[in-house]
Write a structure and sequence with these properties.
single chain; about 350 residues; alpha/beta; Rossmann fold; Pectate Lyase C-like; 2 domains; 12-stranded parallel beta sheet; 7-stranded parallel beta sheet; 6 helices; 24 strands
Length: about 350
């Protein structure tokens, strides 16, 4: 690894769910990284913890997206790291600090200083290719060979690790064996990493959290057998890389968004019951991106709230009633989807 092998990830809060592939790879490579999911506002100061993390970590990965370009917070963190590089230079030390610009959105417009540092384009390259390039940039020992299958997730023993205290594995190789227990222990704004397995749980989220599946689609399964598989009622949050199934509860919905600004991405959602796969009642913005919403015994996406629902690049098929239902007062912005209404 370059420098001291420790990584700081700077990103806009709105890009939390885009980081799933990056974080899964870093976990697989057993890289020590800092990833803060809390929402910070313009004008806030860098907390002592963040300042310390930037100072103590020689590798700075800057996630480059339009949201990051607008983020006061990302600019502040990047400025702090570049200031440390400049200080090393002024004091005559050969700096071990490395800044890696990771382009995550093709709409990102490179800034002049981007090209003075390592530049990895994840927006225009296949995942395996850009991850291999990132691995070389980090100096991780083994480089993925051309044509090799996608990165296997090697699961370290996380049971005694404070850095991964909010990891869940059904066989006990993480601190928690159930997602519900991790949710109960989590603080506002934290991310829960869920390793492959079948979790027969009905989850109620009442605090700002991110739930992130650590496997391929279909490997992290959450099944609701009585009540809804997942019910969200908090200020904001995100779900990424999960398979959510509703197998019981008669007319129970699989995913219910009661309130909050929520992003759901790269998820597989289905319901054998007569309810909706996704029932949105929130007055806040909800984003559904790159999901497969299918085989519903009732509705696919039921938009019954008054907030804006953005539906992008999703497959919505094979439902008993309609694939997309928009109630009076709801507003849905749909683009790039494949929707079969019945």
């Amino acid at each position: 690894m370059r420098g001291n092998g420790k990584v700081f990830i700077s990103h806009a809060h709105d890009d939390n769910t885009r980081c799933a592939s990056l974080l899964a790879a870093l976990d697989t490579w057993q890289v020590d990284y800092w990833f803060d999911t809390r929402r910070m506002e313009a004008g806030d100061d860098l907390t002592h913890a963040i300042q310390t993390a930037i100072r103590e970590r020689d590798i700075f990965i800057r996630l480059c997206t339009p949201a990051a370009q607008r983020s006061f917070w990302v600019r502040l963190e990047t400025g702090a790291f570049r200031g440390l590089q400049a200080k090393d230079h002024r004091e005559g030390r050969e700096s071990s600090r490395v800044l890696i610009n990771l382009i995550m959105d093709s709409a990102y417009e490179p800034e002049p200083f981007d090209y003075a540092h390592i530049f990895v384009d994840a927006a225009r390259k296949p995942e395996a290719e850009w991850l291999a390039e990132l691995r070389r940039a980090l100096g991780v020992a083994r480089v993925q060979a051309a044509g090799e299958a996608a990165l296997p997730l090697r699961l370290p023993d996380l049971s005694g690790s404070d850095a991964h205290a909010l990891s869940v594995h059904p066989s006990g190789r993480a601190r928690y064996t159930t997602i519900g227990a991790a949710i109960a222990a989590a603080r506002d704004g934290e991310t829960i990493s869920i390793w492959p397995g079948h979790y027969a749980e009905e989850l109620a989220i009442t605090k700002p959290l991110t739930l992130r599946g650590m496997g391929q689609r279909g490997e992290v399964v959450i099944e609701g057998r009585r009540a809804s598989a997942l019910r969200f009622d908090a200020a904001h949050g995100a779900l990424a890389g999960l398979t959510l199934r509703q197998s019981g509860g008669k007319n129970a919905d699989c995913v219910v968004i009661v309130a909050g600004k929520v992003a759901i991405s790269d998820c597989d959602i289905s319901a054998e019951t007569g309810g909706a796969c996704v029932n949105i009642m929130s007055r806040d913005e909800v984003l559904l991106r790159k999901n497969s919403i299918h085989d519903g015994g009732g509705w696919g996406v039921f938009a019954g709230g008054t907030g804006i629902v953005t539906l992008e690049e999703s497959e919505i098929t094979a439902h008993a009633y309609s694939g997309l239902t928009i109630m009076r007062g709801a507003y849905v912005l749909a683009r790039g989807n494949h929707i079969i209404l019945t």
